[in-house]
Amino acid sequence: MKTKLITNMYDFECKLFKSVNRHYDQKFLNFYFRNITHLGGATATIAACFLLMIFSKGSYQATSIVSAVSLLLSHLPVAVVKKLYPRKRPYIALHETKVPANPLEDHSFPSGHTTAIFSVIIPFILFMPQLSVVLLPIAVSIGLSRMYLGLHYPSDVLVGSLLGSSTALLTYLFLHEFLLINWF
Q1: CA distances from 23 to 27, 32, 65, 135, 148 (A)
Q2: pTM
Q3: b vs e for 42-71, b when ≥16 Cβ sit within 10 Å of the residue's Cβ?
Q4: Using 50, 70 and 90 to split pLDDT, how confident is the model at 1?
Q5: Which of 37, 98, 133, 162 could be stapled to 24 by a disulfide with Cβ–Cβ 3.0 to 4.6 Å?
Q6: Cα distance between residue 180 and residue 88, in whole Å
Q7: What CA–CA distance (Å, rounded) separates 155 from 138?
Q8: Backbone torsions φ then ψ of 33, nearest 5 degrees
């Protein structure tokens, strides 16, 4: 019973993955997803936090500090989980997966890009909810890009978004309540 449930869930996940990855050869989508995916990478997320900490003031600067701390804290469990659950990336495990040249070779679970972008944007959404109209579509696009590019399963992206969001929420609440109360 348990094995059948797991098999059915994996089959569903593979179908969902393939429904996104099958569009790989479309020119506009290639341009969009190959570029937006980098916004969830280490360089972009660290640079964004760093620049906002330097060039903003007051509540915006405090929020950027929360984002930076959240980014740091969210990647500790990502590193641990990737070691504990060495899941092969879809382009390795599934035949006919479309993938760009020089794909990643580390483990796929959870998605580090998705974790990173959610850990960075959630503090800003909590501080200024109206930013969600811009920031959430960017974060969702980054998550979709990871599947589109053949690098992550849907559950990798889902867990990454939950991990990044929950780390950001807890960091925001902790720093707001205990350390940065006068900045917000």
Answers
A1: 9, 12, 38, 24, 7
A2: 0.91
A3: eebbeebbeebbeeeeeebbbbbbbbbbbb
A4: low
A5: 98
A6: 41
A7: 19
A8: -70, -35
Q: Rounded CA gap, 135 and 22, in Å?
A: 26
* Distance in angstroms (rounded) separating the CA atoms of residues 128 and 132: 8
Q: Evaluate whether 184 touches 58 at the Cβ level (below 8 Å).
A: no
Contacts of 15 (CB under 8 A, 6+ apart): none
Phi first, then psi: give them for residue 153, nearest 5 degrees. -80, 160
Q: Convert the pLDDT of each residue in 124-182 to its tens digit.
A: 999 999 999 999 999 999 999 999 999 999 999 999 999 999 999 999 999 877 765 55
Averaged pLDDT for residues 88-99: 87
Helices (H), the chain: 2-21, 27-36, 42-55, 58-84, 90-93, 112-127, 132-148, 154-174
- 3-class SS of residue 48: helix
* CB-CB neighbours of 165 under 10 Å: 20
Residue 76, number of CB atoms within 10 A of its CB? 10
d(CA 153, CA 114): 12
Distance (Å, whole) CA 93 – CA 152: 11
CA dist., res. 83 & res. 73, Å (int): 17
